[in-house]
Design goal:
This protein has helices at residues 2-11, 18-30, 38-47, 58-71. It is an all-alpha fold. It has one domain. Helix 3 runs parallel beside helix 4. It is elongated.
Length: 75
């Protein structure tokens, strides 16, 4: 049974904090990536406490996420 529990633990996705998700998004964009899912970008922004319109451009939302991360103290 121990091996089965260990196997399940390895398969379980890690839950990231909203700050870590935002940092990962910014790192991907800085590396040249393009976010393909605007809903995911909006969700990250909302988790940081930003109000985001569904009509907002993804680029604008990413800049707002950058500003929010700059304002928040690092843990």
């Amino acid at each position: 049974m121990k091996w089965f529990r260990a196997w399940l633990e390895r398969r379980r996705p890690k839950v990231l904090s909203e700050r870590q998700r935002a940092l990962d998004l910014i790192a991907a964009v800085d590396a040249g990536g393009v976010p393909l899912n605007p809903a995911r970008v909006n969700d990250i922004a909302r988790q940081l406490g930003l109000e985001v319109s569904t009509r907002a451009r993804v680029e604008d939302t990413i800049e707002r996420i950058r500003a929010a991360l700059a304002r928040q103290p690092t843990p």
